[in-house]
Amino acid sequence: MSSHAEHRRIRVDHSALVCKKGCGYFGNPAWQGLCSKCWREDNQHARSKQVEEDRALAERLQREEEAAYASGQQRALSEASATHLGKAEEKRMSQKSRSVPTVKKFFGSSSKPTLGRDATAAQTKPDASGSLGPQPVVESDQATKHFIDFLKTLQKPGRDIFRQCHSFRHSVAYKKDLGAEELTESIQDFYQSLSDHLNTLYKGTPERVEVVMDEVEKYLTLHLYEQTFCPESSDDEVKDLAIQKRIRDLHWVTVQILCAPLNEEIPAVSDTVVKAITDIIEMDSRRVPRDKLRYITRCSKHIIHGVRRTKREAASADDFLPALIYVVLKANPPRLHSNIQYITRFSNPGRLMSGEDGYYFTNLCCAVAFIEKLDAESLNLSPEDFELYMSGQVSPDRLLGPGRSSPSSSSLRGGPGAEPAGAGAPQTRGRRDPDLPTGPGVQQEQSLHRPERDLIEWSDGMERSVQDVLEGLQLEPRSPETGSQPPSTIDSENADCEGLPPPLQPQTSTCPDRAEADPVPVQAQARVTAGERHLFSGEDIQLACSVPEDPLSGWRYQWFLNGVLVSSSEVYDLKDAQVLQTGGYTCLGEKDIDGWPYVMKSLPSDVLNVHVDGGWVLLQTPTEPLVIEEVLNLTCRVRDDPLLMEVTFYKGDVKNWKQKDKDLVFPRVSLEDQGSYWCKATWVQGYVYHSGQSLPASVTVLDKLTSPVLELEPGRTVVAEGSSMVLKCSTQLHAREQGHGIEYYYMKNGTRLGPASSRDTHTIQSAMKDDTGVYTCKVRVRALNLERWSNELKVEVKPRDRPKRR
């Protein structure tokens, strides 16, 4: 980058990120640069002062009104004693007397709205769940269930907290006429009072207080989301549209103009930018402030990673903010202002004052403020250029000089306006002659002719570049000796067949004596492409068949259930599966071979066992045997996936695991874990508790290395003296571990007979009586750190029977 870029670079004033009162916490533009704590203190002070002034004003007006009323009444009585009042005068006096209670009602405590059972005429009650509008009932019910389960762990304090939160939630739901500020103050006051209570209750454990406050925030905001996000009394929606239009108008701002250290030509950096854009857009779909902050943090971390990959060094705050501005401009997140205000108003205030989430959120607020106030001076541009860019008449790459060009401006991919690769002309395009006239009129006239000139220059550059590439290649014609064989003719390939009679003259096939051998059948492969092999009745599963060795050669497929043909297609869909469709599925392929009078068939596939369960609970286990130290996943499913309250897993008849999650995971399975499993579940459906249990399902666990078996070939235990004795140590390494060497050790009476061997046999050429004893063998796989011992084998060497002398 040139000095232009360095001068134009966006700098971070770190004092703008922290509270203006110097308390050390992060500030927020929505709170006039203060943190939530200082803002609340100032706001409460201002409110109390305003309340006192309003009370004093009300009392003064009340005294004046009462004095006016008393003097008017006295004057009226004196006039009435002198003359008789008419009916019109009496009506005027009655209206005068009713004016005083009106003022009292306006300034008195009775001005507060009355809420409760008697307010049904003036207030519209929410639904039974306490939520307003079309809030998803399922999500709210799950939030309540999760909140209750969490509070159960707190025992008695948990009941207190739930009662307070439940009561506060319903009181807020009834107050439909609350403005955005009043609603914010109400919820923040509740957060503060509950936090003070928890700090007293859990003194010395702030982490526990933070966890409870997070759950309270989630419970309240999920139930009150329709009322709190973009309230009707606020102008959030108008500002959302304004900032979206502002970002669209700034579409021309590039990463080079902002001097953001993000080189998107690096694939890894481009991926991080895409992930950052995805996260900041995804923020709008979350309903809890903490979840929205989590996506802001994820977006920011992707940006920092991209900066680090570009610079090959740690990213600084001066690097991060311009990159964040660029991502916001490129993403144009939906309802950006509303999301920021929602987090500011209803998030747990402690989370925004410090920590990782607070820092990144403060930077996002600064980025949005910069975008709203961005002008020509911010980007070190002339006002004329800035207006041309904003109006869309000129693109920035047409007026920026070489010092401001992007790193890719000289590549062949640059398109019209890019400098051709390999061109020797000096890069003068885009520079302005100081002696030439300038101004919007001249610039606009030049910009009208520039695209045509750029297109011609780009075309010439492309032609020269391609010519240079062709001249650099040494292309030679392929000779018949090194190239492909010339096309063969029937006569040349069948010279030995010329003597055959005309009817037997082959036309397209080779001679019988040159015919290829019969094709060797291959095995078909059956697999599950959608769904689970253990499923409920009414669910779907899809099976597919293929011949891996030859998948594109016109195979026709057939599917069989327990040996009975059920389908003649490559893909077999079991829609709304029934219990009768349980069984073993196999498939095979067949096809016609040109020149052969029969149909070629593949070997049947291995059996795919599918179990369709007609009950309410099923246990899903691995469909294939596991090897020790692999992960075992057991899933206890309930039909229609209702809200689970409790799940118990059994092995055999023993209850081993009781939990609330449907998944049970064994990180490192062992041989002891194989066996028969079943589960029992309790769930809520239609506000009614239900319970059920699954059928047993087996789990098979295989050893990586089987225990060796030592035997004496050929299956005997007695050896004649002087004959050969062969010991065989039989073991097997699992197919998934093939490729590792096995070492064999042979022992007699505990003494090793020699060094390690790679052979599974040990031979004694001429057995002697001393070779009688107990033999064992040991196998070892060093790469897997596995070792197994065999059985004990007793061998007896007997002397040969000598012939009797005559």
Automatic annotation (TrEMBL):
Q: Which GO terms describe its cellular component?
A: cytosol; endocytic vesicle
One Gene Ontology term of the biological-process aspect is:
vesicle-mediated transport
Give the top-rank taxon of the lineage listed in the UniProt record for this protein.
Answer: Eukaryota
Keyword Metal-binding annotated: yes
- Which keywords label this protein? Metal-binding, Zinc, Zinc-finger
Q: VPS9 domain: which residues?
A: 237-380
Protein name in UniProt = Rab5 GDP/GTP exchange factor
Q: Which InterPro entries match?
A: DUF5601, Ig-like_dom, Ig-like_dom_sf, Ig-like_fold, Ig_sub, Ig_sub2, VPS9, Vps9-like
Which terms does the record give in the GO molecular function aspect?
A: DNA binding; guanyl-nucleotide exchange factor activity; small GTPase binding; zinc ion binding
Q: What PROSITE patterns does UniProt report for this protein, alphabetically?
A: IG_LIKE (PS50835), VPS9 (PS51205), ZF_A20 (PS51036)
Which stretches are tagged as biased composition: Low complexity?
Answer: 398-426
TM spans (from-to): none
> Which portions of the chain have biased composition (kind: Polar residues)?
481-492
- The chain positions of domain Ig-like read 519-587, 597-700, 708-787
User: A20-type domain spans which residues?
Assistant: 13-47
Q: Which residue ranges are recorded for the region named Disordered?
A: 87-137, 397-453, 472-516
Identify the SUPFAM superfamilies for this entry: Glucocorticoid receptor-like (DNA-binding domain), Immunoglobulin, VPS9 domain
